[in-house]
């Protein structure tokens, strides 16, 4: 069969810029320098408008970070009109908290400094992540404007974000350790903080989003499964309550029957809910 068709141009094509160095940090016991990478899914050149950017932080207990692992699933958000940047951050065997927060903010400053290249609207940055990455998204949003976490390059840029969307994110490390249905991952909190959270309340508080909810009123959409045995659902419920109490626009979406890192989060219905929430908050 031979035929000629006219194709309607309904969406732009997508480019992927893989493993872009956004910062350099101390490596190998402080005696060397290592690159930190991010990958950007961006739209073909020539789009008329700058786009919001979703900055994604993968999970892994702050111990095993693969910033490219969820890229196939994040394409849904690129198709919905966002630029997507998936960010590597130092794991806890390389550096304790707040190094991970410093990395997240460095990545955002880099993206804002290169906004024209990636067709990003620098005033419309959304942070999103899962588990440890959800914790990092929450902390990044709640520390808007706090200069003590700004280190490295592009300091002429700010790292402020407009919306946060944590997926089953850790809240208080101590609560997560004590109230999880499984003790298989208790060690990750010690690795993150450099001490057991119950023995170092100041370190625990410094990594607890609940300590920062009064600092700003960034909108939050929290997602958490009712069958999560790793991160307690009650911690997300407490975060939601504290956010609302302190004037944050906030939604808590509990996914019935969903476990930790469940495929339920990757369904079109959930992606659409997230997209709708973000667009509403960015108006």
UniProtKB/TrEMBL annotation:
<keyword id="KW-0378">Hydrolase</keyword>
<protein>
    <submittedName>
        <fullName>Esterase</fullName>
    </submittedName>
</protein>
<dbReference type="InterPro" id="IPR049492">
    <property type="entry name" value="BD-FAE-like_dom"/>
</dbReference>
<dbReference type="InterPro" id="IPR029058">
    <property type="entry name" value="AB_hydrolase_fold"/>
</dbReference>
<dbReference type="Pfam" id="PF20434">
    <property type="entry name" value="BD-FAE"/>
</dbReference>
<feature type="domain" description="BD-FAE-like">
    <location>
        <begin position="47"/>
        <end position="243"/>
    </location>
</feature>
<dbReference type="InterPro" id="IPR050300">
    <property type="entry name" value="GDXG_lipolytic_enzyme"/>
</dbReference>
